[in-house]
Amino acid sequence: MPKELKLPAIEVKQSKGRTLYTFAVDGKLVPRFATISRVRRKDDGGLSGYQRPEVLSHIDEIRTYLESSSPMVPNALVVAFDSRVKFHPDSKAVTSDYSRAGILTIPFEEEMADDRKPGFIVDGQQRLAAIRDANIDRFPICMTAFITDDVGQQTEQFILVNSTKPLPKGLIYELLPGTSARLPSLLDRRRLPAQLMERMNLEEGSPLQKMIQTATNPHGLIKDNSILRMLENSLNDGVLYRFNSGEESTVDVEQMLNVLYAYWAAVKEVFKAGWGLPPKKSRLMHGAGIISMGLIMDAISDRYRDRIHPSAAQFATDLLGLKESCRWTAGFWDFGPGQQRKWNEVQNTSKDIELLTNYLMIQYKSRVWSASAGASIPQEQKATASRKGSRKAMKTSVPR
Predict the structure, then answer these.
(1) For residues 253 and 240, what is the distance between their CA atoms, to the nearest angstrom?
(2) pTM of structure
């Protein structure tokens, strides 16, 4: 037997012939009266529908968040209703020139086939799928609706909603340090690196102060993503890992910054000719240089692992042994037989970052580590350090 869902709603007249309805409803109920218009090719080759397939990884991220202690989803889902859905204004409610309150009546049946449902989701299918799958009894959501029997208008709104420019990733990363709520795993992993990067970019005494290019510091020389990758490498398997227990309350950010400031101050001192130049003029300030030199930071720290971390002077002493091997601003990199590259031909790709890192690791091991440590360091330990640097370089993805 047909039923009706009656919901308090507000009607908003935006322009001639364009009326919206905003209301709240339990997200678990939405699949009873609204479906997804999946994009597909019909037998005659024509296009039907407009929604892309579900992105399961994205849905799982949202579902996990919804099952947390106090989730909030402030952005409304958008649904297109056909003309079976009616709005009945409340004559006693306060009105304005463009809005009035009333009741939205939505017909539905307990077992209604998709092609008979009066609603089509225009925006928010991943959120709705996550609510559907979440292990929760209910989750009220905000919805915005318009009423039309014209599929073309539904498609038009879908395109408009989904073609707006998303937030730049750099701005998201810059906002992360000020958050504490649970976030999707990719952003959650970047919160600590973003916090470190923020302080490196803003604090007095930082050798990289105002040198990192972010949304609020667009004139910085070094891409934010290069710094983040450098920090992530060390947090995952380098010197910064020593101060990261995995629990937010016991992460020693101050010690991490002590290491970073000491090391990059040493880099600045040893490689003066390549420091502070645009990446096009110095590969030291380029993504490949930043990431590979970050791995050298971990290798040097590994040699001094009997201490909390090397001092700026100790970092500088070890880096001096690499100075004559580096071609940051001129000359040719000698990566081996048939592997000569002009200084600026090293690109910000995984392959080139690995090539540069392996070269620097070999030079460091042969010129610095072996010379200063000699027989006191077992060959097996040296090989382990070299493999660690190579392995971390291979994990490094290409910055945006």
Answers:
(1) 9
(2) 0.68
